Amino acid sequence: xxxxxxxxxxxxxxxxxxxEGKGIVLSEPSVIAIDREDGSVAAVGLRAHEMIGKAPQxxxxxxxxxxxxxxxxxxxxxxxxxxxxxxxxxKVFKPTVAACMPSGITALEQRTLLQLxxxxxxxxxxxxxxxxxxxxxxxxxxDKPFGTMIIDIGSGTTDLAVVTMGSTAVSYCIxxxxxxxxxxxxxxxRINRGILIGEKTAExxxxxxxxxxxxxxxxxxxxxxxxxxxxxPFYFEVxxxxxxxxxxxxxESICKSVLSVLEITPPELLKDITxxxxxxxxxxxxxxxxDKLISEYTSIKTTVVAEPxxxxxxxxxxxLRNIEYLKQQGYVFKTFEDL
Length: 339
What we know:
Oligomer: single chain
Structural class: alpha+beta
Radius of gyration: 21 Å
Shape: flat
Number of helices: 11
CATH superfamily of the largest domain: ATPase, nucleotide binding domain
Number of strands: 18
CATH class of the largest domain: Alpha Beta
Order of helices and strands: EEEEEHEEEHEHEHEEEHEHEEHHEHEHH
Helix content: 25-40%
Largest sheet: 5 strands, mixed
Distance between the termini: 25 Å
CATH topology of the largest domain: Nucleotidyltransferase, domain 5
CATH architecture of the largest domain: 2-Layer Sandwich
Number of domains: 2
Low-confidence stretches: none
């Protein structure tokens, strides 16, 4: 007998797991809370996320993944182990896992990820570049010599890649993601409006009002924050165009990165991309007008995949259906003995 085959998207903000035949079996925030006094785990996932900004001092809320990288190995291992217990329950055999990684990470960062998964309860593990997993999840046929460009805008990074014949021909990654957009909004309101807000409020404003381009008809939302001057809470109104101004530089950095990738793409693959278009995935790809803005920058049709938040983990799940084919393509499933 063998263990479960699990596709895992260990994102900066969200952990997702896909099991063949069952679909997405777990989707929770990548957050863990511990007791400061004895180091015991107080909460993981959604419960830990609800404690952000509200927990008493006895608890420390930690996000062990930042910018697509492991920043707190011990806490990430604890968190992953608990998630694996939820997924595998009383299974005797350890699971086979396909997990995603940002494009262009170092060999040391890859080794850290492999070790993290194996120490947390994985039997064997294979890492996939995030845009490639997104391409598989989007249903793109990858065994043909045809180039497709994928832009996956995650919480911590934006991964850009040109994929063909089951692998990436060109890839690039920048530390710009949806969490940076939240920080942009927090900084803008503090500096320009004298208003203090938290990450959750910034996320809500981004979802309600966020846009890559200015809207023809102005919309606004009312939220609650604190005054920079006296710290007193109050309600305030903010417009969509203010949010657009707050995140403008980050959006431009994404667009310029797209141009940079296209500039180094081989001519024949570039021809394919101009015919098939650019594909957007990741939660931030839903940002109002982003597809149109990238189309304007590149003169190439740009579309958002269906269910962009989950396309990566679904791609990982699909990849696990034919492990022998993956091995033929050069993908290696590693165990502790291989490290």
